[in-house]
Write a structure and sequence with these properties.
The structure holds two protein chains of two kinds. Chain A is built from ten helices and ten strands. By secondary structure, chain A is α/β, with parallel strands linked by helices. Chain B has 15 helices and four strands. The chains are: A alpha/beta, B mainly alpha. The structure holds adenosine-5'-diphosphate and magnesium ion.
C-alpha cells in the first residue's frame, strides 16, 4: 500500500505543500454546473469548515475528492503528488482519505464492534482478510474508539438498532478506526440534539489533534463552536474564505444566505 | 479479546450438528444398506440410498449458492450451469471408462461419436480417461467460467437484477450449445449408459453406498469451508458488500476482488456437487443447464434460510423430498407448487425455515431472561 508522501512513479513534480489541492474543478450534470471553477487548498493538520446553502455543491466536492465522481475539468491533488482524478474509491481510501456521509451509512446488519473491525486500518486484500486474526493492538484500538464515541454498551448490537445520532458517531468512530490522514465529514450534526451537536464539535476538535479535517455543515452555531477557518461555497465555487466573523460580514455572503 | 480460533468458529450451533449428522450418515446409511438383510427393519433399500445421495449433492449446490447470495448478495440465477459443467466432466470420464464395451465396440470413441461418424476423439475429451484429470476439470472448468464471467461483470459493476438476468441468460446459452451434436458432448441425449467408476460397477450396491457416503462427506466439507469463510474477516467484508457496496469501497476494499473470489469458489463447489451427482443418477444431459434448474436452487436456499449455510442444505433436501412426493402424485403441479412456495416463503418466512426457528429460539431466550431478571429487559429496535 502506498502512503500519501510516497510519490507515484509517473507523478508530476511536487508543486504544492498542501495536503489537498483543488484547482479549477468543474463538474456538470446534464449541463447543470454542480461545481464551477472550484479551488480549495487544505494545509496539513488544518481543520476547515465548508458552509454554503443547499445545492451549493458541497457533497459533490466530496464525491470528487473520494473518486465517486470524475470531474470534467480541473486538478485534484493529494499531498501534491497523487492525482485523485485518476484513482478509484478503494485506491483513494487506501491512500488515507476517509469519508463520513451526509446520510449516516453504517453496516446495519453487523454489530457496532464489527463495523469498527471493518474500518480498522490494515491490509485490505482478499488473502489478508481471509487469514486475518485480530491482534491485541487492534482489540485495544477498538475498545478505545468505542469509548471515544460512547458506544461501549452497544458493542454487540447490530448497528441498525442505533439511534440516528449514535449512527453518526459510529461513523465518526469508523473514520477514527480507518486512521486516515484526511477526514471528510459531511453534515455530521444534521438531525442531532443540541447536546449531541456540542459533543460532536468536541469530538471533531479532538480528532483534529492528529488528523486533517474538512467538515461540511449548515449549522452556524456548530461552525462557530469549531472556531476554524471557513470556506463559503455558492453555485459550485468558493465565494469567500476566512474566519466565521469575516465571512459573515462579507456582503456577498449575506446576499447568498439572506437573498434566498 | 482476539478473534476466535478457527476450530471454535466452526463449532457454531447450527453447523456442528449438521456436520456430525452428515458424518454419521456417511457411516451408518451404507451399513444399514449393505449389512442388514432386506427384511430387517433397519434396512435402507438401495433406491433410497441413491435418492438421498442425489439430494445431498443438491444440498452442496445450495450451500455454494448461499455463499454468494446469502452472504455477498450476488443472486446468481445460473448456478445450475456450474453444477452441470462439473457433471459433464465426470460424465466424460465415465464414458471413456466404458472403453471398447460400447454397443459399437470402438476402442476409444464413445457410442454417440461413432453414431455421429466422428473420425477421432475431440480435443476436449483428451485426458478424460484419467480419473484425476476429470476430477480436476470438474472443479477447474466451472471455476474458470465463473472467474472470467465475474471478472467482466464485477469490474464493470454489474449488480442486482441485471447480474441475475445475465447469469440466467448464460445458463440458457450453454444449454442451447450443449444441445448441438457438433459440440461433441452427446447432443440432447447427453452422456449415459455408464458402466463403472474406478473399476467398481455403478450398478453395485457397494458403489452406490460409497457414492452416498462421499456425497455426505463432500457436503460436510463444503459446510465447514463455507463456515470458515463467512466467520473470517473476509466473511464480514462480504456482508458489508451485500448491505452497502459503495460504503465498502470508501473503506478501501476492492469489492470486485472479493466478489470474484467468492463467486469462483462457489462455482467450484457447485462443480464438485455436479461431479458427485452424475454417477448416482447415471446420466447428464443439456436439460441440467435449463434456467428452471438454477431458479429451483434459489428456492431451496430461500426456503431453508438465506445466509445460514446449513439452512440452505436443509432447504434443498426438504424441497426435493416434497418434489419426489408430488411429482409422483401430480407431475403437472410441481412448477406451480414451486412458484407458490417461493412466494409464500418470501412473504411469511423471509429468513427461511432456519431463520424462523432461530428467531423463535432467541425470542424464547429473551422472554426467559426477562422473567428471571428483576429489571425490565432493554427494548431493542
Ligand atoms: N448525480 C447527480 N445528478 C444530477 N445532479 C446532481 C447529482 N449530484 C448532485 N447534483 C446536483 O448538484 C447540485 C449540488 O449538489 P450537492 O453537492 O449535493 O449540494 P450540497 O451538498 O451543497 O447541498 C444540486 O443542485 C444537485 O441537485
Ligand atoms: Mg450535501
Amino acid at each position: 500500500m502506498t502512503t500519501i508522501l510516497e510519490k507515484p512513479r509517473d507523478a508530476a513534480p511536487r508543486t504544492t505543500d498542501a495536503l489537498l489541492y483543488l484547482d479549477a474543478v468543474g463538474v456538470s450534470f446534464d449541463g447543470f454546473k454542480a461545481l464551477d471553477n472550484l479551488s480549495l487548498v487544505i494545509e496539513p493538520g488544518e481543520m476547515r469548515a465548508v458552509i454554503g446553502p443547499n445545492g451549493a455543491g458541497k457533497t459533490t466536492m466530496m464525491d470528487v475528492i473520494t473518486g465517486k465522481t470524475r470531474p470534467d475539468t480541473g486538478t485534484v491533488l493529494l499531498g501534491g503528488v497523487h492525482d485523485l482524478t485518476r484513482l478509484d474509491e478503494a485506491a483513494i481510501a487506501q491512500l488515507g482519505i476517509g469519508r463520513k456521509f451526509q446520510k449516516p451509512t453504517v453496516f446495519e446488519m453487523v454489530s457496532v464492534e464489527e463495523n469498527l473491525v471493518l474500518a480498522l486500518a490494515g491490509r485490505r486484500g482478499v488473502r489478508a482478510t481471509l487469514f486475518h486474526r485480530r491482534s491485541a493492538e487492534e482489540a485495544r484500538r477498538i475498545a478505545e474508539i468505542l469509548e471515544i464515541v460512547k458506544l461501549e454498551d452497544r458493542r454487540p448490537e447490530p448497528a441498525g438498532a442505533l439511534s440516528h445520532g449514535q449512527k453518526q458517531w459510529l461513523e465518526i468512530g469508523m473514520l477514527l478506526a480507518q486512521d486516515p490522514s484526511l477526514l471528510l465529514v459531511d453534515e455530521p450534526v444534521a438531525g442531532m440534539t443540541d447536546a449531541e451537536t456540542e459533543m460532536t464539535a468536541d469530538l471533531l476538535r479532538r480528532i483534529n489533534v492528529d488528523h486533517t479535517v474538512v467538515v461540511v455543515e449548515h449549522d452556524m452555531s456548530f461552525v462557530r463552536a469549531l472556531g476554524v477557518k471557513v470556506s463559503v461555497l455558492h453555485e459550485g465555487s468558493v465565494l469567500a474564505e476566512g474566519s466565521l466573523d469575516q465571512v459573515s460580514a462579507d456582503p456577498r455572503v449575506i446576499e447568498v444566505y439572506l437573498g434566498r | 479479546m482476539t478473534r476466535k480460533p478457527i476450530l471454535f468458529r466452526l463449532m457454531a450451533p447450527h453447523i456442528a450438528p449438521a456436520v456430525l449428522a452428515l458424518v454419521a450418515a456417511a457411516a451408518l446409511v451404507p451399513i444399514a444398506n449393505l449389512v442388514f438383510p432386506a427384511d430387517h427393519p433397519l434396512h435402507v433399500p438401495t433406491g433410497t440410498v441413491v435418492l438421498l445421495g442425489k439430494w445431498l449433492t443438491y444440498a452442496l449446490l445450495a450451500v455454494a449458492l448461499d455463499l454468494v447470495w446469502g452472504y455477498c448478495g450476488i443472486l446468481s440465477l445460473g448456478h445450475g450451469a456450474f453444477f452441470a459443467l462439473g457433471g459433464y466432466a465426470m460424465g466424460m470420464h465415465l464414458m471413456r471408462e466404458i472403453g471398447p464395451r460400447g454397443v459399437y465396440g470402438h476402442p476409444v470413441l464413445p457410442d454417440f461419436m461413432v453414431f455421429l461418424s466422428f473420425e477421432e476423439l475431440p480435443i476436449a475429451w483428451w485426458g478424460f480417461d484419467v480419473f484425476a484429470w476429470a476430477a480436476f476439470m470438474a472443479l477447474f472448468v466451472p471455476g474458470l467460467l465463473a472467474f472470467v464471467f465475474g471478472w467482466l461483470a464485477f469490474r464493470s459493476r454489474v449488480t442486482g437484477v441485471y447480474l441475475s438476468i445475465i447469469t440466467q441468460a448464460g445458463t440458457y446459452a450453454l444449454m442451447l450449445a450443449f444441445f448441438r451434436n457438433e459440440l461433441g458432448f452427446g447432443g440432447n441425449n447427453g452422456l449415459t449408459d455408464f458402466k463403472d467408476v474406478l473399476g467398481f460397477s455403478l450398478q453395485a450396491d457397494g458403489t452406490r453406498a460409497a457414492l452416498f457416503a462421499l456425497s455426505a462427506l463432500a457436503l460436510a466439507g463444503g459446510l465447514l469451508l463455507a463456515q470458515a469463510i463467512v466467520t473470517s474477516k473476509l466473511g464480514l467484508v462480504l456482508v458489508a458488500i451485500r448491505d452497502a457496496e459503495a460504503r465498502t469501497r470508501f473503506l478501501g476494499y476492492r469489492v470486485e476482488r472479493f466478489k470474484l473470489f467468492v463467486f469462483t469458489l462457489s462455482a467450484m463447489m457447485a462443480g464438485l456437487a455436479g461431479a458427485l451427482y452424475v454417477p448416482q443418477v447415471g446420466i447428464i444431459n443439456p436439460s441440467e443447464f435449463s434456467p428452471a434448474n438454477s431458479i429451483e436452487a434459489v428456492v431451496w436456499v430461500a426456503v431453508g434460510g438465506r445466509g445460514t449455510l446449513s439452512g440452505a442444505a436443509l432447504g434443498a433436501v426438504l424441497v426435493n423430498w416434497a418434489k419426489s412426493f408430488l411429482t409422483g402424485a401430480y407431475p403437472e403441479a410441481w412448477l406451480f407448487v414451486l412458484g407458490f412456495l417461493f412466494v409464500a416463503v418470501t412473504l411469511f418466512l423471509p429468513k427461511g425455515i432456519l431463520g424462523a426457528l432461530r428467531s423463535v429460539r432467541l425470542g424464547r431466550r429473551a422472554r426467559a431472561a426477562q422473567a428471571t431478571s428483576a429489571q425490565p429487559a432493554e427494548v431493542r429496535g
